Amino acid sequence: MSAFVIDGKAVAEQVKKNVAAKVSDLQSHGISPCLAVVLVGENPASVSYVAGKRKALAAVGMRDRSEVLPESTTQEQLLQLIDELNRDPSVHGILVQLPLPPHISEDAVTESISPAKDVDGFHPVNMGKLLGGKKCFLPCTPHGILKLLEHERIETAGKRAVVIGRSNIVGKPMALLLSRREWNATVTLCHTRTRNLAEISRQADILIVASGHPCTVTADMVKPGAVVIDVGVNRVPDADKKSGFRLVGDVDFEAVKEVASFITPVPGGVGPMTIAMLMFNTLEAALPDSALR
Questions:
Q1: Catalytic residue positions?
Q2: Staple partner for 276: which of 15, 137, 146, 233, CB 3.0–4.6 Å?
Q3: Global pTM?
């Protein structure tokens, strides 16, 4: 029996609907939640991601204070803009779209954003709070994955979770969150130097794959009945597509769905949840009694 395919788009729409209702309530009290998305250059993938975020802002009724800067923008100019946004009380959240041009330090930019407006959850202060189990902005993709598990009533307490990928954006925070008392999973974090990866992944009740490479996980690497969450988005050539490519995840979807109990598709799985949780975090930043400021 094939796995149940988790509809991330539908869950994301529900999250955004809830956010929109709360945004409307805040606006009736004179508070208009606002996010500034900053894009430097014209990287096609980044342009597409920013367009999706701006569309979501409009859908939930938030103010859009986005900035599109040329590739030639200097690091000093970008940091000056971030400083202005930090000091603007009408802006509640700031997101600088990555990757940045090579002449700009991503670390310097990330660290320049006020932790109180860091709705991506990547500032070292927020990452430290995450590690310490304190209240903070949760990184959007791991938070979205947890929302999917919650929506499908998938139990995490006492379960063996395996996370493949150790990025600061997904893998590391995902492993930390799953091991917190709220979720109580036993977590193994794997990466490119992990030996016997297939042997470890087959032990997972919940397998989260964020390796950044198509078909990292094949059917023989999955325990029957496991929950498989595919975070990857990869472009592979496809002559039948007008664009010349198609999107696939880090999991061999067609084969793995015959082994797993639940699985996320690509596209339409984790991706929509990332943007939905960005809206959630921006709303949190705008709340007058927010514990995140």
A1: 53, 97, 120
A2: 15
A3: 0.94
